[in-house]
Amino acid sequence: MRAHLDALAGREKLLARITELSNAGPELSAFQVMSERVFYLRRNPGEDLAKLVVRLPDGQEKTLFNPNLIGGEAQTAIDWYFPSWDGRSVAYGISQGGSENSVLHVLEVESGAILDLAIPHTEFTHVSWLEDNRSFVYHRFPERPAGTPETERYRDGCTYLHRLGEDVAGDRPVFGANLSMSVEVGRDDYPFLMISPQSSWMIGLVAHGDLEEKSIYAAPRSTLVDPATIPWKRMCDVEDAVADYDLIGDTIYLRTYKNAPRYKVIATPTGYATSERKGGERLKNWQRRQKCGYLRENE
User: Fold this and answer.
1) pTM of the full predicted structure?
2) Considering only Cβ atoms within 10 Å of each terminal Cβ, which end of the chain, N or C, has fewer?
3) Is residue 53 part of a domain?
């Protein structure tokens, strides 16, 4: 196959043109804005890997972490990043050799210093900073003993709370299996805790493996102090066919394909769940749905 492709007429000319266009300018991606600071990944022409940069309020662009400068046989890539609310710190994950075995680190934007912190097993994580800008919640998988089957690698994940300067071994689990009677989390589920400056509520999102449909819970952010007593409300479950959400203030917006092949967006206050369960049966509150402007038809 390789020999056949190499022999195609005009291949070299086409390849040269593609290479020229690919190197025409920098590639910018993964934008996030926090406290008037714009964070993004930048890969310049000729660079193999994207670097993490920030554009400061005065317009100056500053490189925060450049994996192209890291030596070694295997390349080190940035997997993800999450800036703090004040934009002064960034949690980011790196892995080597395309392994996606992310290790969580934190750097300070002003000084560029990388803190003495490394949390492994944070593949596909989500990091939510708290309002103190010194604490964050993050998802990680457990340490596995040697010889554990590869099929166990992404099971039993949990979200933990970490405070900068404290030992990772003391990080407390805050969202996951067997932490709340109101939340159902299986071994193959990914429980993420979403906290945003846009709302005084927090979202517990349970991703069920590769399923598009999510289970979403909501609770006041102030109740995070005691995970066992967080008053989680189930906003939707798998049968509600919710693929995505957004949270603004006290309103959660859900994108669902239930009774809507091309999807629709519904809105509901976080203090009211779209589905509640008693004795294993689903109860529907039609009057409240109409009052809150529900768009679900034909249920």
Assistant:
1) 0.85
2) N
3) yes
